[in-house]
Amino acid sequence: MHSEKEIRKHVFSLTPHSGDDVFNQVSLAVFKFQASTNRVYRSYLSNLKVNPDSIHHYTRIPFLPIEFFKSQEVICNELQPSATCFTSSGTTGQAVSRHFVNDISVYQHSFEKCFEMFYGNPGEYCILALLPNYLERAGSSLVYMCDHLIRKSGHPKSGFYLHNLDELIQTIHDLKELKQKTLLLGVSYALMDLAERDVKLDENFIVMETGGMKGKRKELLKVELHAFLRRRFNLSTIHSEYGMTELLSQAYSKEGGLFNCPPWMKVLIRDVNDPFCYMGNEKTGGVNVIDLANFNSCAFIETKDLGRSKQSGDFEVLGRFDNSDLRGCNLMIG
C-alpha cells in the first residue's frame, strides 16, 4: 500500500494530459489506502460485501453517500487534535455535515493549484467577495478558500463586502478607472442585489456565482440567474464555482454553466435508480464526485446533486434530489 506522502505526490502530479489510465492508477491507490485506513468507509465496503482487491477501475469503486458526513467522522487513520473541521450550514435542528481535515495544507495546495490552472496567479487580481468573512463563518471551506486567495492577491482593495454594498460600488468604480483585473464572487442573491444597483462592469471583471438564494429571493434556474446577471452587469458571460463542504477541490465554469474539473477530480453521473450503474453523456442522473485531493477523508462521494455529463468531459449541475435538505452556500448566510 502506498504511504500518505506517496499518494499526495501522485495526486498532485496529475495533469490535464495524464490520461485515463494514469488517473485510474492513482484512484485505485487512493481507494485501497482509504479502504484500509478509513473506519467508516471500510465498514461501508464490508456491508456491501466488496473486496477492495477485486476493484480494478475507478468506475467500480463504491461511492460513499454524502449523508455519512452528518453522523460520522469520515477520516483516515485517527482524528488529530489539530484537525480543521469544515461544516455545512443548516437551519435550527438540521444536521450539518462535518469534514475533518488533518492536514489543512493539502486543501490549500489543492485550491491554489486549481485556481492557477483556471485563472492564473491570484496576485494578478483584486478579489471582491460577497460572502461572510472568515470570523462570521469560520467553518465554511468556501470562505476559508476565499480568505486565503484574498490575502494571496495582495491587493489593498481585496476583501469581503457582503454587508457594505455602497463601499463595494465605490471600489468597483475605482478599479474600473485603474483597469484592474478583478474577480467578483459571491452567493447568488447578493450578486443580484448588487446588479440591481445599476452597476456596470467591463472586460477586466470576472463575476463568479457560488450558488445560494437562502430564501432571500425566488430560486432561479441557473440559466435564468446568469441571463439576469449578464444583462445587468453588461457582461458576456458569468462564471460559477462547484464545491462542497465534503470535498477539497472545486470545479469551475467559465461559460454556459459547463463545469470543468482539475486533473485530480472527476464527475460521474449515476442512474438515479441504480447507484452502481452510470449514465451516458447527455443523460440526467445523480452526481458522483472523485476528489483525489481528499485522500485523508473519502475521495469517492455520492452527492445529492443532479447533473449531466458532456462528450467534452465537462458537466452541468441541474438541481438536487431533495430541495428540503439544502446544503452549503444555499444556507451559508446567517
Describe the structure.
By secondary structure, the protein is α/β, with parallel strands linked by helices. It folds into 2 domains: 4-86 and 265-311, no CATH class; 106-257 and 321-331, ANL, N-terminal domain (Rossmann fold, 3-Layer(aba) Sandwich). The chain has 9 helices and 14 strands. A hairpin with an 8-residue loop joins strand 12 (284-291) and strand 13. The longest helix is centred in the first third of the chain and has 18 residues, at 20-37.
What ranges have pLDDT less than 50 throughout 5 or more consecutive residues?
323-334
Average of pLDDT: 91
The radius of gyration over CA amounts to 20 Å
Structural class: alpha/beta
Main sheet makeup: 7 strands, mixed
Task: Outline the fold blueprint.
Blueprint: H1 4-12, H2 20-37, H3 39-47, E1 64-65, H4 68-71, E2 84-87, E3 98-101, H5 104-119, E4 126-130, H6 141-153, E5 159-160, H7 165-178, E6 182-186, H8 188-195, E7 205-209, H9 222-233, E8 239-242, E9 251-253, E10 259-260, E11 265-270, E12 284-291, E13 300-309, E14 315-320
Parallel strand pairs: 1-13, 4-5, 4-6, 6-7, 7-8
Antiparallel strand pairs: 2-3, 8-9, 9-10, 11-12, 12-13, 13-14
Helix pairs in contact: 1-2, 2-3, 8-9
